[in-house]
Amino acid sequence: MAAQPSTVPSSASSTLATTGSPAAAPLTTIDTTDVLPSGFDLVSARVTEPDGTVCDLCLWLAETGVQRSRGLMSVTDLGPADGMAFVYPQPHVTRFWMKDTVLPLSIAFYDPAGKFMESFDMEPCLTDSCPTYPTPIGFLIAVEAYQGALAPVGMVEGSTLEVLDRPCGT
Question: 146 lies in a domain?
Fold first, then answer.
């Protein structure tokens, strides 16, 4: 998801390359080289499903304004992580968008108590005119993952999320 100027977290996008000749219209292609997130720490997280099933996750952590604005931009592979956690210092409301994003993503929102609020899918957008996605009022953490990957790790209605203060695998 790409940052909407100064207020919106971001995510995956690719590098665009233009090719062509003066006699032909330029073609826009997507660089398919794997690009992993950089400048983020990996952190452990725990999802507890409504039935008590626990799933331990590894998430990229975006906790500063700059990190949340960049998010998964230019990322084509999450590497060892299940997704990216956008953590805010206080309950928040904003809009997300997918500017320059090539990966279709799903996003889940959790309140300050770690309770699931809402989730939805977002489609890539490689133009300057991208739709925005409103967030629930008062969320504290948003988690982006590959589209369709939230339910398999328990991020469903009735679940809770805890971002742990430790690296993945500990």
Answer: yes
Q: For residue 108, what are the CA distances in angstroms to 17, 35, 85?
A: 32, 23, 10
What pTM value is reported for the model? Answer: 0.80
Q: What CATH code is carried by the domain that includes residue 84? A: 2.60.120.1140
Indicate the number of domains in the chain. 1
pLDDT digits (tens, 9 = 90+) for 48-63: 999 999 999 999 999 9
State the residue range of the domain holding 59: 28-163
62: left (phi over 0), alpha (psi -120 to 50) or beta: beta
Structural domain includes residue 14 = no
In 10 A of CB 62, how many CB atoms?
A: 27
pLDDT in tens, 131-157: 999 999 999 999 999 999 999 999 999
Cα 27 from Cα 43, distance rounded (Å): 39
d(CA 56, CA 28): 39
Q: How many CA atoms lie within 13 A of 84 on its CB side?
A: 31
Mean per-residue pLDDT over the chain, rounded: 83
